[in-house]
Task: structure prediction
Amino acid sequence: APPYNAAAVTLKDSAGKVYFDSGSAVSGSVEIAEDTGTVLAQITGEASSLYTIARISCFHDPKAANGDVEGMGLKNTGGYIFYDGNNSQWLDPGKPAARQYLCGIAKEAAELGFDEILLTDVSYPTEGKLDKIDYGEELPSRNLVTFLTEMRAALEPYGVALSIEVPE
Result:
């Protein structure tokens, strides 16, 4: 047995890159090595004694936000894509397509056999001109609760643990 009992693997990062052969990832976001599928199958497989955690960055996603500004991107009050304090873009938790996109990625991770899905960036931007964000009709907190409710429902058939990383 390995000298450790768990492995956390980043399957989607805050640059919007997806590190497994995802069928639902936006065009141009998948980056995998030749043996990625084999390695993931080894650590999540029946023969593995590891507890496996798939780390998925949620709303901080410039690739998907720019790929579909209308359907998924977080906009500013002027109607254009919002740039945070680091000149990056986000998905809008208030948009159903953005939430469905993330649920699809997480379901694929569950199908790969991960024991736990760890969600990061479950928020609106926290840096930049936050008063310029177009939050839409709903309260931002309500949109995030809706997202987590939808995510839990999407993952329910797989019996995986769902956790979120809470920023400082």
Remarks:
- DSSP finds four helices and four strands in the chain.
- The chain has a mean pLDDT of 95.
- Residues 76 and 133 are 4 Å apart (CA to CA).
